[in-house]
Amino acid sequence: MRRLIRSVSRKVASAGAGNPPEGEAVVLPLGDVSYHQGLDVIANPVLLVRQPGMRVVYANPAAEASFALSRKAMLELSLGDLFGASEELDSMIDTVLSRQFDARRQDVVLHPPLQEPMHVHVVIGALEANPDTVLVEMLPNEQKVRSDREERILDLTSANKELIRNLAHEIKNPLGGIRGAAQLLEFELPDRSLREYTQVIIKESDRLQTLVDRLLEPHRHPHIVSDLNIHEVLERVRSVVLAEFPTGLDIVRDYDASLPDLRGDMEQLIQAVLNIVHNAAQALAERIARGDAQIVLRTRVARQVTIAKRLFKLALDLHVIDNGPGIPEDIRERIFYPLVSGRDGGSGLGLTLAQTFVQQHEGLIECESRPGCTDFRILLPLH
């Protein structure tokens, strides 16, 4: 790209002097700005932006496709109209226009109006023949974002797992003493009506004991590995959920029958998927009442997948997609944390346990959510 920027600048100067040098691409005039026709074939979005006003004076076909706007429509916009306010982008352009740098590059997050945020690596280049114009190239940066997110999830899950184990053991010991003391006190009470209070202590102790047992569940049972078909897992989950929600919910199968067997613990994988599907069904309560709730179970093969910085040639790509209201934005980044729930009365352990079980299979769960579509993606290596 830097070579192309220099080429644009050199050839702009010669464009008005006649034909371009032999063997070199033509520089085309665009109003009072010229551009190299090679920009049209670049696969990444490229814009030429001019001061004052950061106005777009050129957009290549890749930019038209990325922003779903025609070149003509973009020429009526400024960079701020396209991407919203971005101090980072403005600063980069200012330093290039002032010739502090010939080019600058940086990872930024852009926020186009009415669109999802864009994670891109932006390259800003100066054009010598047009001192008030810069070239802006945007390279998609989703792989880096995904890798960073995976690493963050794995680190947090590992820390949470150790914290939960230690905390559960610390709670369990005094809990047994509290329950035992309440039982002894109940026998000594002269007034039977007072036993109502000791029963509260006993029942709440039992409830906390159940909670602690669930926290410790992934660490109690051995990891029993065998060859299994993921569609058997999904059919078990489907039958359990439909038994609980027999009307108003459609669970759609979208299976890739060519998927090979994977090595794993059948019961753990059933529990992991069941937790996700059951959560989705509960989130669909209003649509179930209307009769138009839907959950899609989709399986595909993914190739050359990186999970936890390890490259796997093949992986199972399993999606659980529902048409519910979406995960509340305030907890969207914390849904795999223990005791975080978006539902009244929820324990906040279902997704935590699902993530733990999947990680024990060297896999990972990711989630993308917006109103009308929540997509949980489970990646599991196929060894």
Could you walk me through the main structural features you see in this protein, from its secondary elements to its overall organization?
- The protein is α+β, with helices and mostly antiparallel strands.
- It folds into 3 domains: 2-140, PAS domain (Beta-Lactamase, 2-Layer Sandwich); 145-220; 226-381, Heat Shock Protein 90 (2-Layer Sandwich).
- Helix content is 43%, strand content 26%.
- The chain has 11 helices and 14 strands.
- It has helices at 2-15, 61-67, 71-74, 79-83, 87-97, 142-188, 195-220, 230-244, 266-283, 285-290, 350-359, and strands at residues 27-30, 33-36, 46-50, 55-59, 103-110, 118-126, 133-140, 226-228, 249-254, 262-264, 293-307, 310-322, 364-370, 373-381.
- The strands form 4 sheets. The chain has a 5-stranded antiparallel beta sheet with strand order 4-3-7-6-5, with helices on both faces. A 5-stranded mixed beta sheet has the order 9-11-12-14-13. A two-stranded antiparallel ribbon has the order 1-2.
- The longest helix has 47 residues, at 142-188.
- The model is unreliable at 1-34 (pLDDT under 50).
List the helices and strands and how they pair.
Layout: H1 2-15, E1 27-30, E2 33-36, E3 46-50, E4 55-59, H2 61-67, H3 71-74, H4 79-83, H5 87-97, E5 103-110, E6 118-126, E7 133-140, H6 142-188, H7 195-220, E8 226-228, H8 230-244, E9 249-254, E10 262-264, H9 266-283, H10 285-290, E11 293-307, E12 310-322, H11 350-359, E13 364-370, E14 373-381
Parallel strand pairs: 9-11
Antiparallel strand pairs: 1-2, 3-4, 3-7, 5-6, 6-7, 8-10, 11-12, 12-14, 13-14
Helix pairs in contact: 6-7, 8-9, 9-11
